[in-house]
Amino acid sequence: MSKYELALVLSEKLEDEERAAAIEKIQGYITRFGGTVSDVDEWGKKKLAYEVRKMTEGYYYFIHFEAETQAPAELEAAVRIMEPVIRYLIVKQDEE
User: Fold this and answer.
1) pLDDT by residue for the chain (96 residues), tens digit each?
2) Domains of the chain (ranges plus CATH)?
3) pTM score, two decimals?
């Protein structure tokens, strides 16, 4: 199992419950694909570097998880089509 980090930017138009539901859904995807979530880091509402879908701000989240090598591709396919997600990036963390 390798360690990964999923960086997410969610729409600024979401209410607290909708953001929590989106994060729960993503955590569910990770566990469904055989991974385990170790940490969810919420950075809150931040200004975007450039306008995306007519939005200038978004909610930033970083989810750390461990999974097999095929899981990030499956997770990316699921996250890509989620409506509240405006940007995402999955990176493999260095083994220490």
Assistant:
1) 899 999 999 999 999 999 999 999 999 999 999 999 999 999 999 999 999 999 999 999 999 999 999 999 999 999 999 999 999 999 999 876
2) 2-92 (3.30.70.60)
3) 0.92
